[in-house]
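Example for tutorial group B:
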């Protein structure tokens, strides 16, 4: 996934939080593969060495734990707000402080127009990510969440605990950490819900109601980038 960093950072420099100070924290097990990109004054790139996990599902799941640990160790001293983002993404238009709030989630582009009973929430009651059939308002994407550092901390800690409990039972939620995220936001409402402009799937045709995308997926060859 290090191949996605260049485009992510170059487009972030054009569109993300322009005029504000920004720290980019890149989590990777391959620090030597992080390209050096010229950054604006007041912008910093910090590489955080992370363990290698055997499957893409575990890498994605473990983000909750890694982000939480790092909030405690350093982010809370260094920043006010955090956005936690997938790397296989690019910025395409302005993405600024209008997106900030105490706790922020984004509607998943695949389900913004879908009936609730089609949302891929975790449906097994044995899982900590379980969502009963009569619950849920939106289906959120796992590729972006954020907010005040303290709120993101609480959120990542709760998800991590749920993930570990599931692990002890030998199960993994339907969409890994995205399932735990969705469960959390049903019972702890985000103070801001971002529309599909802020999380768009660029491989899908744009519906007429979407005039522009701000943050969108980059196509990836699953076989080439994933170990499993
Ligand atoms: C658009 C969107 O909502 N995407 C979500 C979706 O699939 P995606 O297909 O977008 O998941 P993905 O393959 O992008 O993995 C999630 C993220 O984990 C990181 N990563 C993953 C594998 C790896 O070998 N190295 C690495 O760094 C990387 O930042 C990547 O962007 O479902 C996943 C469930 O687990 C996550 O919730 C994603 O956020
Ligand atoms: Mn992704």
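The residue assignment follows.
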């Amino acid at each position: 996934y290090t191949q996605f960093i260049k485009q992510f950072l170059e487009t972030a420099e054009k569109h993300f939080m322009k005029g504000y100070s920004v720290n980019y924290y890149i989590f990777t097990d391959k620090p030597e593969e992080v390209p050096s990109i010229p950054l604006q004054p007041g912008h910093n790139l910090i590489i955080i060495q992370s363990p290698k996990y055997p499957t893409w599902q575990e890498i994605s799941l473990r983000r909750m734990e890694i982000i939480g640990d790092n909030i405690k160790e350093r982010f809370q001293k260094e920043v006010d707000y955090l956005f936690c983002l997938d790397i296989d993404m690019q910025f395409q238009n302005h993405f600024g402080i209008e997106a900030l709030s105490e706790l922020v989630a984004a509607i998943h582009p695949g389900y913004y127009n879908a009936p609730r009973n089609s949302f891929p929430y975790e449906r097994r009651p044995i899982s900590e990510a379980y969502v009963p059939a009569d619950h849920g308002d939106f289906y959120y994407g796992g590729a972006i969440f954020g907010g005040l550092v303290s709120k993101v901390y609480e959120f990542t800690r709760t998800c991590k605990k749920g993930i570990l409990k599931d692990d002890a039972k030998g199960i993994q939620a339907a969409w890994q950490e995205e399932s735990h995220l969705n469960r959390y936001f049903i019972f702890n409402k985000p103070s801001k819900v971002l529309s599909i402009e802020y999380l768009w799937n660029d491989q899908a045709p744009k519906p007429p109601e979407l005039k522009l995308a701000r943050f969108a997926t980059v196509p990836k060859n699953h076989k080439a980038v994933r170990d499993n």
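The pocket of UD2 (ligand 1) is lined by residues 1, 56-57, 59-60, 86-88, 108, 141-143, 175-178, 217, 226 (CB under 6 Å). Compare this with the pattern of hydrophobic and polar residues in the output above.
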